[in-house]
Specification:
Helix content: 25-40%
Number of strands: 30
Radius of gyration: 24 Å
Structural class: alpha/beta
Oligomer: single chain
Number of helices: 16
Distance between the termini: 38 Å
Strand content: 15-25%
């Protein structure tokens, strides 16, 4: 496959300070659109905008392309702890409400972003997620508005074409209907015994709010990871468009250049004009370059990176900016606030080694067999997702016996925001804790709170753009989050008991001491983890101040600044009750249409 033409800051920008007499002509470093962040959303946006041969696009990515064989293999690429991983990790701030714990935060830093390292899950979430956004005043963002974008982007190998499933998009997904581990069959039976309905397609908008079934995963016809880089910006396409699409990798944007410009004799406006960039290589720190935008700059650096860049550019809560020695251009209090993530609490069990992914670590024969199977057929554990099935449950419908009880079918209508599931229970054939458990076969039941009320924030650790931002995950900032999560953990314990009654050898390893509230809460604080589904730090809304403060409007434009938008999961008005990759792609698809619409009328 042809490789992506990777450029450097000096290839795409002009040195600073700008020499207008002897420097390169302005057109050589000016682009119609500059996209900061070549991650999950950024690759989609760059691909769609550069479909127009008359448009020039500069895409800037902090990491490399690194399109190696290992980065394409689902099992290998999804291991963030391996040598050569494309995952960047650092510690969150301590959270006093959960025993002062710090938790590792993570994102992908490469072309394709977190779609290069995640668990491959293509999940849209219930329609009620987007109808909730519409309830919050975000017109144009309801499920009916967004469904065409889901269809446009995908090529579903596992489902027939329909009003809600696409067959013509560049992004492939498939299902694995055979279970890689015997335990999963028993878990699915136990979920059925809890009155949780089976669904063949969890992305069908008519799927009930309480459901279990097989997941769609982003793998192509060769059983390679279908990251948004390989789907939307493969080397062949990048080579074909290299005259109008410049891809600058291993590059950090230091700040957005925002000017206060005169509109007329009495009016001025803030306008984003360009970006200052440097190579990520610390030995080249201080050699700054400038690239200018004719039309717009779009931040697609993710829910941790986009707010950081706005803050570095002087846009954010004025007191925080002053504290960090940054000149305040615009007081936008919501920048970096309202961070949300799903809260997972793994319950860990010992199973036969042959029924766990850890067989590959403990048996050379098993590892060689799995590798050969993948080389020859593309199948086996190397192509299997870490998670092949899931279950989604509105905790309010669980009775005292942990069974779903509904007295009215309308309660299961997942298009209604109040009916959405708030618990996901995930069966996973490996260790999901943050500590090694050597020489054992491990199986995990992972309940997660997927509609948390708690919020955290992203703040600058320092005014140095090369420093990681401070991330306060804010878990259990609202103690009400304990209530549904207790039910999720009790449901997991019920499922484990049912699996054992079916005759499967499941032995407790790391589980609560009892099902009493105090023991469950203690267990939660000791063992919770984040799910890397960060959202809402540049959230969408009507105004930057007021009861529901926001950063961008419904066209993703930063309040108070012309020519600057945000396009990633940070714009979510609230977190969705699902894994966030597919929703991030939909935001990019819609953003591309919004930008094209403006260009047509300009």
């Amino acid at each position: 496959m042809p490789s992506v033409p990777e450029l450097t800051p000096q290839d795409v920008g002009t040195p600073l300070p700008i020499d207008h007499l002897k420097g390169p002509p302005e057109d050589s470093y000016t682009y119609d659109y500059i996209i900061v962040g070549g991650g999950t959303a950024g690759c989609v946006l760059a691909s769609r905008l550069s479909e127009d041969p008359s448009v020039s696009v500069l895409l800037i990515e902090q990491g490399p392309v690194a399109d190696t064989w290992a980065s394409r293999v689902p099992l290998i690429s999804g291991n963030p702890y391996r040598d050569g991983t494309l995952a960047a990790t650092w510690w969150s701030l301590p959270m006093p409400q959960v025993n002062g714990r710090s938790i590792q935060v993570m994102r992908g830093e490469a072309l394709g972003g977190t779609s290069r390292i995640n668990s491959l899950l293509y999940t849209r979430g219930p329609p009620g997620d987007y109808n909730r956004w519409k309830e919050l005043g975000c017109e144009g963002w309801g499920y009916a508005d967004l469904e065409p974008y889901f269809v446009k982007s995908e090529d579903s190998l596992g489902h027939p074409a329909s009003k809600f499933r696409g067959k013509k998009g560049p992004w492939l997904n498939r299902q694995f209907l055979s279970y890689p581990y015997k335990a999963i069959k028993h878990v699915m039976t136990a979920l059925g015994n809890a009155n949780i309905a089976y669904a063949k397609d969890l992305n069908d908008p008519s799927t009930p709010a309480a459901t279990a079934g097989p997941l769609d995963v982003v793998e192509d016809k060769s059983f390679y990871r279908a990251s948004t880089y390989r789907a939307f910006l493969p080397g062949k396409l990048a080579q074909e468009r290299k005259g109008r699409l410049k891809i600058c990798t291993n590059t950090i944007v230091m700040r957005v250049r925002v000017l206060n410009e005169e509109v007329d004799d009495v009016t001025t406006e803030m306008r984003a004009r360009g970006v200052i960039l440097e190579a990520t290589n610390p030995r080249k720190a201080g050699r700054s370059f400038y690239a200018a935008a004719r039309r717009e700059i779009i931040l697609s650096a993710g829910a941790l990176g986009s707010p950081q860049l706005l803050l570095l550019s002087g846009i954010g809560p004025q007191e925080h900016l002053k504290e960090k020695g940054i000149s305040v251009l615009l007081d936008v209090p919501a920048v970096g606030k309202h961070l949300q993530d799903h809260i997972g609490v793994p319950l860990t069990y010992e199973v036969p080694m042959s029924d766990s992914l850890h067989q590959l670590e403990n048996s050379t024969f098993a590892a060689i067999k799995a590798a050969l199977t993948y080389f020859i057929t593309g199948r086996g554990l190397f192509s299997s997702p870490f998670q092949s099935v899931t279950s989604l449950i509105p905790s309010r419908l669980l009775d005292d016996n942990l069974r779903v009880v509904s007295h009215d079918p309308a309660e299961l209508d997942a298009s209604v925001p109040l009916n959405r599931p708030d618990i996901e229970l995930m069966p996973i054939g490996n260790n999901c804790t943050d500590a090694d458990i050597p020489h054992k076969g491990i199986f995990t039941l992972l309940p997660a709170l997927i509609l948390p009320k708690s919020e955290g924030c992203v703040r600058l650790a320092t005014s140095n753009p090369r420093a990681r931002p401070d991330v306060d995950l804010g878990f259990f900032d609202d103690p009400a989050d304990y209530v549904p999560l207790r039910k999720g953990i009790r449901l997991a314990l019920r499922v484990a008991d049912d699996v054992r009654r079916q005759g499967y050898p499941l032995r407790d390893l790391v589980v609560p001491a009892s099902d009493a509230d105090t023991d469950i809460d203690r267990f939660v604080r000791a063992h919770l983890r984040d799910c890397f589904h960060y959202t809402s730090t540049c959230r969408m809304g009507a105004a930057p101040h007021g009861e529901r403060e926001s950063v961008v409007d419904t066209e993703l434009r930063v309040h108070g600044v012309r020519g600057l938008r945000v396009c990633d999961t940070s714009v979510f008005p609230e977190i969705v009750a699902t894994h966030t990759m597919a929703p991030a792609v939909v935001v990019a698809e819609k953003c591309a249409d919004l930008l094209r619409a403006v260009a047509k009328t300009s």
